[in-house]
Structures are given as C-alpha cells and as structure tokens.
Prior knowledge:
single chain, alpha/beta, UDP-galactose 4-epimerase, domain 1, Rossmann fold, four-stranded mixed beta sheet, globular, seven-stranded parallel beta sheet, 19% strand, 13 strands
Amino acid sequence: MKKILVTGGAGYIGSHTVRQLADKKYIPLIYDNLSTGYKEFVGDFEFIKGDIGDYDKLISVFKKHEIECVMNFASFIAVGESVKLPLKYYKNNLADTIELFRAMVDSGIKNFIFSSSAAVYGLPEVTPITENSPLNPINPYGRSKLYIEEILKDLDISDGIKSISLRYFNAAGASSSGDIGENHIPETHLIPLIMRAILDDSYTLNVFGTDYPTKDGTCIRDYIHVDDLASAHVLALEYLLTQNKSDVFNLGNGTGFSVNEVIQCTEKIAGKKCKLKYSERREGDAAVLVASSDKAKDALRWKSKYNQLENIIETAWKWESSGKRSGY
Length: 328
C-alpha cells in the first residue's frame, strides 16, 4: 500500500482526508506541529510531531518512510489576521512550504497535493468562477496561496514534481461520525459562529454588510462539506499517480447562499434563534463567490455528496452541540 505524508493532518480538513485515505487503502502518515491541529484528531494513525519548515526533520522522515505523495494542509487560514500579520503568513504558508519543497527535491519525492484557496481570485467580476478566471488575490493569505501555485509550476519544469492544487471555496460541516469537526481558535467561519451565538447567550454574531447587490443584501458564498473536500483529495491523488501531470481544480458546490439564508437554515436545524447584529461591510468582502467545479467533475470524476445546505449544517450542528469543541 502507498504511504502518503499528510502535513497538517491533525487539522480540520487534513484529519477528514486522513480517514478517507485509510478507507481507500492508502497509509496516511500525519506530520503536524499541533499549532492549530489537535492530537485527538490523529486517532490511531501514525503521527510525527514536526514543522514543515524543519528541513532536517523532513529529510529524516523521507529517509525512513517510502513516501509516494505529500499532501500539504499546513497553513494559516484567517484572512483578516493575514492583513494584520502578513509576515506570519508569508513565513508559514510560503517560506516554510519552500523548505518542504526543498526536502522533497533532495529526497526525490515527485508528487504533491496542495490546499489552495478561492482567495487566489480576489474580487471576481464574473461568477461562477472557473479555473481560468483572473488571479488577483487582495490579501496576504490569498497571495501566499498563489505564490505556492506559481512555485509548483517552476518545480514541475525544474525537478519533475507533479502537483494538483485544489482551490477550496467555503469549507463547512463535520464528519458524520461526530468525532471530528471544525475547531479553529480563533474561529472565523460563519456556520460555527452562528452556532456559537445559538449555544452561548453571551455571544452575538456580527453580520458584515446588508447593502450588497444580492437578493437580501448580505454576501453570498459557496459552501462545500469537508468530507467532499476530503474525497476530492483522494481522487486528486489517484489522478496524479495515474496521469502524472500537474493541474488545478476548483472545489465548490456551484450554488451560493446568502449570510441570512445560512443563519435561517441553522436556526431551523437548531430549533433556536441566534443573537446577531448588523454592521458595516468589511473591506475586501466580495458580494458573490460561487465556484464552477465542472473541471473537477470531468477530470477527477468528483461529485459532492453533501449538495444541500441543510445536510452540511446538520453535520456541523451535531459536532458543535456535542461539547467537543476546544473553544472559539
């Protein structure tokens, strides 16, 4: 069986992907510094505590284990924080990832799957967004993702490293088992923050902007279940190993929901209203971000299992209401 190094495998999307890799008879090896990941998400899988910027440790891992592919989930993801602390993001998401690449090159590892982001598109003029849409990130987080995509193109030419970059839209939901889910601290994603406002009477949800050119004035986003993202990673791995060529794919459901619609759906599932307030727009928030994932459906034979917002939110509620979350 092929062994896959999953950097950031103790985090939200990484931990869900690890389980699907195992289901498909791959051997996942989790490599995580636990700065934002959780040891309890590792389960019984093999785990190495380490940083992707630690070249020497990575070299020792590659010498000890026969790694077929590296899947990298080890990045900071808070857009607002990236604006305030750009060097933190360029250090981890860019400089440390380059150290990972250096260790791969020196160890002869030729396959890489990258967690990219819809943030590489910035503020698109046309939706749905295709992979050919202009790349114009407007914050350090998005730029860090785009720079890695560009480096991967260079590494394909220079060292024969084949890669798949997966541009996520809004990851949401939790494992249907209820044992792992979203656990970011601080939490910035809408659905868990709505649930926090439902579960914690002292917390008020802040809705930014009510005057967007949308049906109810709030932003519209494309939500994709974390297990659907995980399945796309497994399919991308199989594509990479059989086709031996680099590519990039959007991952979204292709349907947008407004902030107000997500709030109403969550309240219906929870059976309780959330406390909220409406504020001014946040700088840099696009009115509508919706993906075209036709390319992934065609090339990877990927299909989302959770294509209804209610189904996504139900799994998130099961996790959030279980009391297993570490904090917000």
